[in-house]
Amino acid sequence: MNNIYDFSMPLANGQDQAFSEYKGKVLLIVNTASKCGFTPQYDGLQKLQDDFADKGFSVLAFPCDQFGKQEPGSDAEIVDFCTTRFSVDFPLFSKIEVNGDNAAPIYKVMKSSAKGIFGSEGIKWNFTKFLVNQEGEVIKRYAPTTKPEVIAKDIAKLL
Questions:
Q1: pTM of the predicted structure, to 2 decimals
Q2: Domain limits of the chain?
C-alpha cells in the first residue's frame, strides 16, 4: 500500500483524524520535537502553511521522542509550546514512534515508499519530512537538515 488515505491517527487533542479527509491536498508530514536543534523549523513550516493552505496544502506534525529524548512533554504541553512559541496552526498529532516495532503504521508506509539515503527506511532524526501528492502517494523524503523554504518549490509544482 502506497496510499495514506486508509489511515486514521489521533490528533494531540485526542480526536481521531481520518486521512481520507485530506484527499485532494498536498501534504508535508514531519516528525517533530520541541527541544531539538531543528525546532526553529517550525517557523518555516508555518510559513509554508500560510503560503499554500488556501491552494490545498497542509503541514501535518507528528511529535516524536525517539531521538535524543527531545520531545518529553505531554500532547497538551507540545501543543502549548508550538502555538505559543511558533504560532503553529497546522494539525499537531498525538506523540508517536516512527521507528521500531511500535512505529505508527502510516510511517511504515511512508518510509517504504520514499527511502532515505542509501535506500534505508529508518528515520534518522527529528524533522524528517515526507511530501505527499493529492492522490495520497508519498513522492519525496527530505532530510532533517532540509529547510522548509527549500521544499516550497516542490509544493508549488504539485499545486
A1: 0.94
A2: 8-158
Quickly count: other Cβ atoms within 10 Å of residue 21's Cβ: 10
CA-CA distance, 80 to 55, in Å (whole number)? 27
Quote the DSSP letter at residue 95. P
Q: Determine contact, residues 70/34, Cβ cutoff 8 Å.
A: yes
Q: Is residue 84 packed enough to be buried (19+ CB in 10 Å), middle (13-18) or exposed (0-12)?
A: exposed
Annotation says 64 is catalytic: no
Q: Which of 9, 27, 36, 79 is catalytic?
A: 36
Residues 55-80: tens digit of each pLDDT:
999 999 999 999 999 998 899 999 99
Burial class (CB in 10 A: 0-12, 13-18, 19+), 16: exposed
Asked whether 141 and 116 are in contact (CB, 8 A), the reply is yes
CATH fold of the domain at 8-158: Glutaredoxin (3.40.30)
